[in-house]
Amino acid sequence: MKSIAYLLFALIAIGASAAERVGVGLFSADGLDGWEERRFAGVTEYTLTEEGGHRVLRAASHGSASGLYKHLRVDLMKTPYLHWSWKVENTLGPLDETTKAGDDYPARIYVIASGGLLFWQTRAVNYVWASRQPEGATWPNAFTANAGMIAVRSGDSRVGRWIAERRNVREDYRRAFGRDIRYVDAVALMSDTDNSGKAATAYYGDIYFSAD
DSSP assignment, residue 120? Predict the structure, then answer.
């Protein structure tokens, strides 16, 4: 089983060979080049580490909420699919993630479409590893209607395992906000436990957009 898992991870790290590909977080090759930190409550520790012979990003949150973000403009007409891999060591128990008190996740990735000077029109889709909400569930963020939440993974059944993900961001924006967008302007990731005061550890593999 381990050899199969490592082979899968190697394929994820190498990524697709399609001509249309936009690298976002190529931690295996470029480390944290281009990423910046944003703090909300305390500091989640983000460090590069080795997993199965590949460099990945480790996030450790202890009642904290800080994230990493990267500005880049992506044309969703050309590369609508977001790819990433992640692993969590634990989830956060029976939180009500639709409330402010329960808005914590061991792992999440934001894709942000800027409203420019019309900042109130900025929108974000959040792909989360939920603790309680079932896989496939969607709901508005408890703090702002400008962020839509999608539970890509949920619960403990896959804790400790690397999971490869692929999402059509353009379609997810359409479902979340009822409108079509062409460009996104930033990607962020965060492991946060500030509202619950709990602790979580997660790992993120390479992140990129592709045509398929």
Answer: G
